[in-house]
Amino acid sequence: MRILGKVGVYLGGASLIALNGAAHAQSTAAEPQAAAPAAPQASQDIVVTGSRTIKNGNDSPSPVTVVSTQDILRTQPGGTLADALNNLPVFAGSRGSASNPSSTGTAAAGNGAANQLNLRNLGSNRTLVLIDGERVPPTTANGIVDVDIIPQMLIQRVDVVTGGVSAVYGSDAVAGVVNYVIDKHFNGLTLKADNGISQRGDDRRTDLGIAGGADLFGGRGHIEASYEYIDQSGIGRRSDRSWLNQVGVAGSGDPAYPAGSAENPYQLYSNVRFANLPFGGLITKGPASLVGQTFSPDGSLRAFEHGEATGTSGLEIGGDGGYYDSSLVAPLRAHQVFGRFDYDVASDIHFYAQASGDMKTNESDADLLQLSNYTFASDNAFLSDALQQEMAAAGPTFSMSELVNSLPRLHAIAKSRQWLFMGGFTGSLGGFDWGINYTHGITKLNTTLANNPNYQHIAAALDAVTDPSTGATVCAVTLSNPEADPGCVPLDVFGTGNVDPAAAAYTMQSTHYHTTTKLDDVSAHIGGSPFDTWAGPVNVALSGEYRKLSFRSTSDAQPGDTVDCTGIRYNCSAGKSLWGFSFASNPTVSQEVKEAALEVNVPLAKDVPLIHSLSVNAAARYTDYDTSGDYWTWKLGLDWQITDTFRLRGTRSRDIRAPTLYELFAPVNSVPVKPVDLLTGLSPQVPSTDLSNPDLKAEIGQTWTGGLVWSPSRKFSIAIDYYHIKISDAVVQVAGSTPAYQQACYDSGGSSPFCALQERPNGFTDTSASNAVTRWYTQYQNIGEIKTYGVDLELNYSTSLFDRPASLRLLGAYQPHVYYRQPGVTTTDQGGVAFGPLGLSAGPSLRLSAFARFQPAPNFTLDIFERWRNSMKLSGDPTQVWTSNHIDAFATTDLTLTRDFDTSFGSAQLSFSVENLFDADPPIGAYSGNGTRAGLRDGFALGDDPVGRYFSIGVKLKL
């Protein structure tokens, strides 16, 4: 290990200045032996992502980064293409299997562990995903694309446009576009096998794949197909990493004041425990001699040891209190298939048809059953005779609170079946290129919530008595009303490890939530050059599109399901929700869209003083949504090539993101939450109910970009681009439990519209415990404004070291602010902030990625990847006071060794990779809004690596 560390120090130092990967679209390629295949050369005639009229990437006024799949995956053998893309700094806040997965998020809005790309941390639903320029259907219920549907083995490159292009592609292209370009001329057979494991022996990963292609009919046709299997075991518990020691946020001062105030500042703690919820059970009411005692694992009593008090009454540091221990990395099993057929119908007409499918399963574990002051009979059959006598002396019942770790955690199993079919014709007519395309996508997401608490069964099972006729321990309801709860199995929660598996199955049941999303899309375009100016051809493109999107869901755990308390003595209240987590069924809802667009590229000048070439690009699109109205989007771009090595570029655009079907018509869902009620200072566990809003309108984005590209030689290039994005009428999921919205309500005395997002018995001025909140609401509303700006940097350099080829590359993103503004609420700045409400992800203000490649010998390559982010704030809420609102910077270094060689079967490649070479632990952090949920999903900033040092070995064979 010491030798490995020394080697890593030298390699890591070099990587700080380096980056090699696929070249930028505006960069010139280095010598083939110095860098893997990268961006197309200037002499190539290609269709550029972000435009239907520009045929050369060097002429695009929009910043376009072109990433070679082969190149970027070399640094992560066995990893997914989405994982590799997220190493680019333009992505921030993307979600995946290590994104603090939650069971509630998985079921309510889609697969919470799905791979979701997020440009500039503006939300995955504001990043448009394409395949060969055609829209990919949404694959989760909330309208987001799980990019695992993309056939990784046959993707040639990925184009990333960082700027608004709704005028070219329609809704959702507010932050930009990610376009996967398929290798349509793949010939031969490729097999791959990759295997990986963490240094700690977990998160095992197997990736097997095969891809083949061949020409047919004398070259007029072509067929290709691929299959890939991925199996990743994940990391089942957060406690499997010692640095992730029940991290949480609590007050650090006078608990008489709200946490986060000047008198009671927020502070980040480790070893956070519930103050009154041990694993074995805490007696809260009963004989004075027993109140405050906790049950040992064997069911005997002992004194409950409190930890160090915090300024939040429900949390302590250390002691006997319990804590959550949810998943760290969600397990994944996936089968991915792809097939494509091409055929030249005539010399100027081409036909294609392709199909791709992704059948995968993600799993995650989260909440434990929580019992708060539950009532038990003093003669409960699971108590010892001595305890029964002592309890009975104080009355017929006693009360107990417990975080029940003897019962299994809530376990979500998300099985998605995604299919995407595309086909169409392309051709040329009179010098014009044309195309017509049809896309059909269908996604079925079946989520099973195993161990979902059934509160009627729990209430019945906790009341255990002795059957006088047999002496057996049974449920009291079995004797008093056997028809009410047949099959009741008594539940022993006194101590730990005493639960009968049959009782666990009776009380913690599996419920199911099924969603189906369909898209049918027909698009057509025609483009060409109707005439020339003295500076060059004028290119024009006309396009139209019709699509219909539909969504439906079914559930066997409805929010309207309530308990039947017939025959149940304790812990049952008529009208209470039956399930811990319930999700309503939704009848089929749909959305139809009609669009027409025109784009033109006009050269204005050429080969005059200070103008090597000058052109303007303009596009306009009219969109008609049957659900949310009509909209115009447009884009203007200028490309000014001052010399053949130096150019300026800029764009101005108006873009939209139409509300998704989920935002418009989502079923009413409720989940239990426990945030701090700022009015009373309590943290009651109450339902949080999600509401849709059919009156939503489209968001409007206004984007400016401007930059320069300097490439003085084939060995060096640099690109710097500035952007400014403002989104008005932003659709915001307003959560009544968010501290800022709570405070806005209370400051108004009840007149604020945010007061409608909570229920309580006595209005909004009574601060007594009897007025604690009884329900929170969240609802989508067009009340937000989002504003951000920043600078992107890309530097490429190829050279020789010791007469051997080497290449260096650096990518950087500086994004100092992401402002969220809403009426009546203090503006929140999520720029450079690690945590935020409703899934807002970590957005470091400075993100750097560097790659270095060196070939010390023929057919042997050394790749080093360094990823760094700067330090951040824990919270962007300016009303909060912290003792230290800070989380440290974080960096990881990856090392890959690759050997290429020839065999009697064909060419082969063997690779060995060490990710997180120095086994860096992420700096700990937590979200203040998690209230008293000790250790549930906090611990590290999204995007940081929680796994640690990881070893992979892979082999690829090309026949």
Question: What does this molecule look like?
Answer:
By secondary structure, the chain is mainly β. The protein has one domain (about 1-240, about 330-365, about 410-450, about 515-735, about 775-870, about 890-920, about 940-959): TonB-dependent receptor, beta-barrel domain (Maltoporin, Chain A, Beta Barrel), CATH 2.40.170. It is built from eleven helices and 44 strands. The strands form seven sheets. It has a 22-stranded antiparallel beta barrel, surrounded by four helices. A five-stranded mixed beta sheet has the order 1-4-5-2-3. Strands 11-16-15 form a three-stranded antiparallel beta sheet, with no helix packed on it. The longest helix is centred in the N-terminal third of the chain and has 14 residues, at about 1-15. The model is unreliable at about 1-45 and about 100-110 (pLDDT under 50).
Question: Secondary-structure map with pairings?
Answer:
Elements: H1 2-15, E1 64-68, H2 69-73, H3 81-85, H4 103-109, E2 127-131, E3 134-135, E4 155-161, H5 166-169, E5 176-182, E6 188-198, E7 205-216, E8 221-232, E9 248-251, E10 266-269, E11 272-274, E12 282-285, E13 293-295, E14 301-303, E15 306-309, E16 315-319, E17 332-346, E18 349-365, E19 369-377, H6 385-392, E20 397-404, E21 411-429, E22 432-453, H7 455-462, E23 464-466, E24 473-475, H8 476-480, H9 501-507, E25 508-533, E26 536-555, E27 582-583, E28 586-608, E29 611-625, E30 629-641, E31 646-657, H10 661-665, E32 669-673, E33 686-691, E34 699-713, E35 716-735, H11 739-747, E36 758-759, E37 775-801, E38 804-822, E39 825-829, E40 846-857, E41 860-869, E42 890-902, E43 907-915, E44 950-958
Parallel strand pairs: 2-5, 33-37
Antiparallel strand pairs: 1-4, 2-3, 4-5, 6-7, 6-44, 7-8, 8-17, 9-10, 11-16, 12-20, 13-14, 15-16, 17-18, 18-21, 19-20, 21-22, 22-25, 23-24, 25-26, 26-28, 27-32, 28-29, 29-30, 30-31, 31-34, 32-33, 34-35, 35-37, 36-37, 37-38, 38-39, 38-40, 40-41, 41-42, 42-43, 43-44
